[in-house]
Automatic annotation (TrEMBL):
It comes from the Eukaryota. Belongs to the FAD-dependent oxidoreductase family. It comes from Turnix velox (Little buttonquail). This is Apoptosis-inducing factor 3. InterPro entries: FAD-oxidoreductase/Apoptosis, FAD/NAD-bd_sf, FAD/NAD-binding_dom, FAD/NAD-linked_Rdtase_dimer_sf, Reductase_C, Rieske_2Fe-2S, Rieske_2Fe-2S_sf. The lineage of its organism: Eukaryota, Metazoa, Chordata, Craniata, Vertebrata. Induces apoptosis through a caspase dependent pathway. Reduces mitochondrial membrane potential.
């Protein structure tokens, strides 16, 4: 031990040989409990927009002992980062008991010391992921990995705490993941679980099945050419390559027998014969089905829409191509949506000019309200972006087949070498029209709180569904957020295994522009007032969205961890009144 005073905490890190080999094959090469470095560099984006890199220890053979603090240094409800010499852990006292877990969120590396501790879990201050302080397990998303957990026990004289890591549980739940034990029983055209779509919902569903001990065949299929990747990065960090933003390395899918069929499109689902029919004629029988096909971006319907160099950002290749074409050139972005605004911010210092065309008078007006929208607009204008509001595109003009000008209905003509379209999306559910699966008038798949459709054994998740939101009295809503897709996938998997688990999570999202993040929690649809604390001009504020007398959502900039705090309160089922925040 290193004696610093007569009373201290001892922390010991030991990784047995057999655990060490597992550590190297850990599910996500991007997450590690103790040492992080930014993966790649970007001029605008701060640490929070990057995944985190691996290798928890300088030398895993070392036994680490460190004296850090006295038992009485921590009050109930307090957290403290403690230094192990080779990295840090998060020490927590709640309900008279001590716990210790990894100190950084495995999603993008947020310091959990700045998060919110409540009722046995800690919530990330950046993107709202929640971790159980006793087990380290991830309980709300985004991200895929759990926190490493340390044993904590007082020494005999009760003056110090002993933290012992005998076997680091790297980034996986306390339950061991299963593998498929019956692949040989299947022919190529049948599977136990078929997952259509390989986004967050599909991947979390497959992983959860394995974590819960499911050892039958799992097949995921995707129209994409890549294994599942971090889709929000396509507009936030546009020059990322597919392997940099992969959610899991290739080896992970091999290790846990999760088969992924890439560039495969399902054309129809025959629910009577429990068969998916692919576009190329291939058929696959299933026992349980998850539909997680997400959205299809809307295209422009104006004259010249087939001109070259007009993009919807759907794939890493799209994003990379736009960056290449936009460098030192003129860019027009149609739609001040999350995607449109993030792309505009990313290209601002790379392009010669960036113009944004939007039908509304203020960006994000329906989502964040007029005052927050104006503050964001001002930030963009101070970064040389030009807005053309309350108008739309009437024509795209070309020269030798390539885009040259964008003509607006107002009569204005904008020079344009590349155009990015972000005017919303529609659910990718056309292939289900004749299936008998219940679809609403807008094309969303209707599910219950267990992510079940009207057809037994058929589940749906992610951006393509409407589901009952507990937060808004079980109103059927569509919540196309990255965090929500993860949770949908988890709930669907648990109910495929008959756990009877209902969804109750609070929606949480973030957007990043010019190195600044707006965080948002709740469901503000139909808000009738906004209560703002702080300073909009300084971009340091919190906005509470109210309906009647109740706070239904919150957004903030430079005000952490307020959004995570509100999310915790709402998630506990408590009501926040307008008078509480005024």
């Amino acid at each position: 031990f290193l004696f610093v005073s007569a009373v201290e905490v001892k922390i010991e890190v030991v990784i047995p040989e057999k655990e060490r080999s597992k550590e190297e094959m850990s599910p996500n090469g991007k997450a590690s409990p103790l040492i992080y470095k930014v993966n790649g560099t970007a001029r605008h984006y701060h640490l929070e927009e990057h995944p985190i890199a691996s290798n928890p220890y300088h030398n895993p053979k070392d036994v680490v002992e460190a004296s850090v603090c006295h038992v009485k240094d921590l009050e109930n409800g307090q957290m403290r980062e403690v230094d192990l010499g080779c990295g840090k852990a998060l020490l927590i006292k709640e309900g008279g008991e001590f716990h210790a877990v990894g100190h950084k969120c495995p999603h993008y590396g947020a310091p959990l010391i700045k998060g919110v501790l409540s009722k046995g879990r800690v919530r990330c201050p950046w993107h709202g992921a929640c971790f159980n302080i006793s087990t380290g397990d991830i309980e709300d998303f985004p991200g895929l990995d759990s926190l490493p957990r340390f044993q904590v026990r007082p020494l005999k004289d009760n003056h110090f705490l002993l933290l012992v890591v005998q076997a680091l549980q790297t980034q996986r739940r306390t339950k061991m993941m299963a593998k498929c034990i019956s692949l040989s029983n299947y022919n190529l055209s049948s599977t136990n679980v078929l997952i259509i779509g390989a986004g967050a919902a599909g991947l979390v569903c497959a992983e959860t099945l394995r974590q819960e001990g499911f050892s039958d065949r799992i097949v995921m299929c995707t129209m994409d050419r890549h294994l599942p990747y971090d889709r929000p990065k396509l507009s936030k960090s546009m020059d990322s390559h597919p392997e940099q933003i992969a959610l899991r390395p290739k080896e992970f899918f091999c290790t846990y027998d999760i088969e992924v069929l890439t560039e495969m499109q399902v054309a129809a689902v025959d629910i009577k014969n429990k068969t998916a029919v692919f576009k190329d004629g291939f058929k696959m029988e299933y026992n349980k089905l998850l539909i997680a096909t997400g959205n299809t971006p809307k295209a422009l319907s104006c004259k010249g829409k087939e001109v070259e160099n007009v993009f919807n950002i759907r794939t890493p290749e799209d994003a990379n191509r736009v960056v290449k074409l936009a460098t030192s050139k003129n860019v027009v972005i149609v739609g001040a949506s999350f995607l449109g605004m993030e792309v505009a911010a990313y290209l601002a210092e790379r392009a010669h000019s960036v113009s944004l065309v939007e039908l509304e008078e203020v960006p994000f007006k329906k989502f964040f309200g007029e005052r927050v929208g104006r503050a964001v607009m001002k930030m963009f204008e101070s970064n040389r972006l030009k807005f053309y509001m309350q108008t739309e595109v009437s024509e795209l003009r070309e020269q030798e087949g390539k885009l040259k000008e964008v003509v607006l209905k107002s009569g204005k003509v904008l020079r344009a070498d590349v155009c990015v379209v972000g005017v919303g999306a529609v659910p990718a559910t056309g292939f289900l029209k004749q299936s008998g699966i219940n679809i609403d008038s807008k094309g969303f798949i209707v599910v219950n709180k267990m992510m079940q459709t009207n057809i037994p054994g058929v589940f749906a998740a992610g951006d393509a569904v409407t589901f009952p939101l507990a937060l808004r009295n079980n109103k059927k809503v569509n919540v196309p957020h990255w965090q929500m897709a993860h949770m949908h996938g988890r709930i669907a998997a648990l109910n495929m295994l008959a756990h009877g688990m209902e969804i109750s999570t609070v929606p949480y999202l973030w957007t990043a522009m010019f190195g600044k993040s707006i965080r948002y929690a709740g469901h503000g649809e139909g808000f009738d007032d906004v209560v703002i604390q702080g300073d909009l001009d300084e971009l340091k504020f919190v906005a509470f969205y109210t309906k009647s007398d109740e706070v239904v959502a919150v957004a903030s900039m430079n005000y952490d961890p307020i959004v995570s705090k509100v999310a915790e309160v709402l998630s506990a089922g408590r009501t926040i009144r307008k008078r509480d925040v005024e």
